[in-house]
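Notes, Module 5: Reading structure tokens.

Key idea: the token line is not a picture. It is a compressed description, and you learn to read it the same way you learned to read a sequence, by spotting repeated patterns. We will look at two proteins. The first is printed below with its tokens.
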Amino acid sequence: MSDLFALVRDVPDFPRPGILFKDLTPLFRDPGAFRALVVALAEPYRDARVDAVLGVEARGFILGAAVALHLGAGFVPARKPGKLPAKCDREGYSLEYGTDALELHLGSFGPGDRVLIIDDVIATGGTARAAVTLARRQHADLVGAAFAVELDFLRGRDLLPPDLAVTSLLHV
């Protein structure tokens, strides 16, 4: 795993001054590293009978779609406001540099759909909690949430429900 994360680039002062952004795009560019990352994110949920992966905009789309294919599941995007064409549910959240919201098409999940949330990084936990809230409002059965990187010092995991299985591959 450490070889993979040697490809993660630190970008200072992005998207705001004082933020050290963890950029996974160099890792995505390397076919072997990208494949290994997808497999590592999917492996803990291999036997969880995942029906759909909920990928969080934007890098969660990249990882989520690949994990969904690996698990033989469908893919559902959670997008920023105004990006989805049909009727949506919206959930606002705070992050380390402001506020935002996620939207999910109404009817994305049905009762009992087994859903895995995927994103690249969990920082303050607001985005992940918004994804959990949206999925549960549609009566999805969440099997877990998986992240490539967790910024432990921001304690984002603390915002997630204690009954949710959480996987993070790199702890910073």
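Here is the second protein, with the sequence above and the tokens below, as before.
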Amino acid sequence: MKIEEIVTLGEQYLMNNYKRLPVSFVEGKGCYVTDTENKTFLDFIGGIAVNNLGHSPKAVVEAIKAQAEKLMHVSNVFWIESQIALAKILVDHSFADKAFFCNSGAEANEGAIKLARKYAYKKYGVNKYEIIAMSGSFHGRTLGTLATTDNKKYQEGYGPIPEGFKFATFNDIESIKQLVNENTCGILIEPVQGEGGVTPVDKQFLMEVKELCLEKDILLIFDEIQCGIGRTGKLFAYQHFGIEPDIMSLAKALGGGFPIGAVVAKEEVATAWQPGDHGTTFGGNPLACASGVATMKSILDEKLWEKAEEMGKYFTKKLQVFVETYPWVKQVKGMGLMLGLELEIEGASIVEKAFQQGVLINCTAGKVLRFVPPLIVEKDDIDLLIDTLDGIFIEIEVE
């Protein structure tokens, strides 16, 4: 089917809540995808930090095929072996003692919020329920996660937004101290903000937040939906800082492209949930968890966080040249292979021009080009991206 026909049918039958580029992909391998016109694109979006193993990774494809031939779904009223296997992997390689599985990042954050409130309710009663989130945050599009997302455009038209949520200034401990009171049950932080401009948390700030949480018996919640699963140069981003949360949300790359989310937590917190307190029909089903097990085993066996660190350093040096060359390029941001190039101009037109030249990137926070390629990316792929951007940048005139 030609792209013109796909667009026409899409506009006829799909709700218009995405601004889509005029392309439809039919196949992908590694860091490249091919469209209906047989044109190949270098993919530095990776499904927005989902395809950490690249497109159609062999181990994940084989795991999905094998599981689909046996059993795809049963209810969580039964034990599911692949669910237990994936939980064990996450627990063995993180701070956590227990895991809960859902279908998406928004659901994982919703679960993290509910778990924090339930823990505080059981320990202190009905009044300790407030969550403090950060400026620049993005935690999802359910009503609950919208309440923790610091972007009014996402909230407009969906009011009233649930109460009990406050916003502190990211990387400013004093702004948190001003908001904390006897009703605060949790502080929610992305170790690297994605939609907020690929901005890492400051280590000193995080240390002070942890101290405050310990002093006030407040739960520290990390949203690692985008920055987790090897992307930043560690298996989990919190490991860069030596500071453990009480609860962590995961999704995106956890299933190697198959939808799955998770809430992991320390034992004391996890026990706040008892049968009937929270649940999901599809979450943690055999097929999703088989993909998760295959994904995690591949990342662990290949130590892909080390590859992310190595390629991230190379990529950062290449991007830094743009900062030194073009006055309107401000800085390189991020960690590992979660990188952003902050500009003084809007980035949308650059994304469009790169697309026209067969390179997929995106722009976040208006002026930050975001790069989240598969962790299997090679130097030649990075060089191709850099050459493409350089050809675009050299033609840009800024007054």
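Summary for the second protein:
- Residues 99 and 264 are 4 Å apart (CA to CA).
- The mean pLDDT is 97.
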